[in-house]
From TrEMBL:
Name listed for the protein in its UniProt record: Uncharacterized protein
Record key words, sorted: Membrane, Transmembrane, Transmembrane helix
Compositionally skewed regions (Polar residues) per UniProt: 39-49
Species this chain originates from: Ramazzottius varieornatus
Listed transmembrane segments: 12-31
Region called Disordered, residue ranges: 39-58
Taxonomic lineage: Eukaryota, Metazoa, Ecdysozoa, Tardigrada, Eutardigrada
This protein's encoding gene: RvY_01951-1
């Protein structure tokens, strides 16, 4: 029983870091996908929004 606990905590830490990394990777891929689809309009909306300027983010 005492041997099991350290292994389990290490496993939990690794899966936690791995899960966060996977989520970040998925979010990045989705962001890139949306960016390529929407083009410059998406960039303009994400940057500091000013109706007169339009695109302020290059």
């Amino acid at each position: 029983m005492p041997d099991l606990k350290p292994d389990y905590t290490i496993f939990f830490v690794f899966t936690g870091i791995g899960g966060l990394f996977v989520l970040l990777l998925i979010a990045f891929l989705i962001f890139r996908h949306l960016q390529s689809h929407c083009g410059t309009q998406h960039n303009g909306r994400n940057a500091t929004y000013s109706p007169g300027d339009g695109i302020t983010f290059g």
